[in-house]
Design a protein that fits this description.
Blueprint (H helix, E strand, L loop, with lengths): L1 H9 L2 H8 L3 H15 L4 E4 L2 E4 L1 H25 L3 E6 L9 H11 L3 E6 L4 H10 L5 E5 L8 E16 L9 E2 L8 E4 L5 H12 L5 E5 L3 H9 L5 E4 H7 L4 E6 L5 E9 L6 H14 L2
Parallel strand pairs: 3-4, 3-5, 7-11, 8-9
Antiparallel strand pairs: 1-2, 5-12, 6-10, 6-11, 6-12
Length: about 290
């Protein structure tokens, strides 16, 4: 099953072998044996790589469940440490994750937590969650979460325009989106939740937007706006935490730019006991 998932995730027998640290012939032989045992083809092999067949797509979530169950059984028998892998976004201050982890370690002293971020933001974490690389992920969705994920809303906060103190818009308390046409923006790369929220709003209003600078960190975004490299969008909680007097906030009058943070797991497999405890603690903290 691990060989099958490695090929499914990498779409390549060669890359799967590299990930598993085995020879490619071993991966090919294992997959052939699995296909022979099941009586179906799991992959279509071609110049573009290895693509899952319909049968392979059906097997994938069940393979994840099988492996999770096997690891849980091994941990129960051997007393190995439970591990929970959590996908996180940068610069999140709406929940005190450190305080949550303190409570988790008190309740489950043998647990090990691995925090992971993704270069592609929410899009990358969402993909890793589906592929079984993450047990839990914090994700931002502008609309309803996809049905193949179990997601609970942690917080919903508005985004406001931020401009340097000397900017022509610094004296305005509120403006419509149309007032921002032609301005240069500092924003996160595509795939980040806050970028998606803003892109969707401008697209719905039929306004073109120029992102002159992309940065992957909210603090860096704020610093570049302060230095006049463009305007941007941030939540008030981030701005308040930074205590940045060099930035001025402006409310948008004709669009609800809501940043919705969810905590999610895959609907294809049940969370482990340790992951379920962590989820419960996150829900308690977000409900305070």
């Amino acid at each position: 099953m691990e060989y099958f998932l490695a090929v499914a995730e990498t779409r390549s027998f060669t890359r799967a072998a590299e990930r598993l640290h085995v020879v490619q012939s071993g991966v090919s032989a294992t997959i052939k044996a699995l296909e022979r045992e099941l009586g179906v083809k799991l992959f279509v092999r071609g110049p573009g790589g290895a693509a899952l067949t319909a049968a392979g797509e059906e097997l994938r979530p069940r393979a994840l469940v099988t492996i999770d169950a096997a690891r849980a059984a091994k941990a129960a028998v051997t007393g190995a440490r439970e591990t929970v892998t959590v996908g996180i976004l940068t610069s999140i201050n709406v929940i005190d994750l450190s305080a949550v982890l303190v409570r988790l370690y008190a309740l489950r002293p043998g647990v090990s937590v691995q925090l992971r971020s993704a270069a592609a933001g929410t899009a990358g974490l969402e993909r890793q969650l589906r592929d079984g690389e993450l047990d839990i992920a914090f994700l931002v969705f502008p609309h309803e979460p996809p049905p193949d994920l179990r997601a609970r809303l942690v917080v919903s906060v508005p985004l406001v325009l931020v401009v340097p103190a000397g900017h022509p818009l610094a004296g305005a308390q509120a403006v419509p989106l149309s007032e921002l046409a032609g301005l240069s923006f500092v924003d996160c790369p595509r795939g980040y939740g806050n970028r998606t929220v803003v892109d969707n709003a401008f697209s719905a209003a039929g306004i073109e937007r120029t992102v002159a600078l992309e940065v992957a960190d909210i603090g860096t975004l704020a610093a570049n706006v302060r230095n006049g490299l463009g305007v941007g969008f941030l939540s008030r909680s981030i701005i308040d935490e930074m205590g940045d007097s060099g930035l001025v906030t402006v409310r948008i009058t004709d669009s609800d730019l809501l940043w919705r943070l969810y905590v999610a797991t895959s609907a294809a497999r049940a969370p482990s006991a340790a992951a379920q405890t962590l989820l419960s603690l996150i829900e308690e903290a977000s409900g305070d």
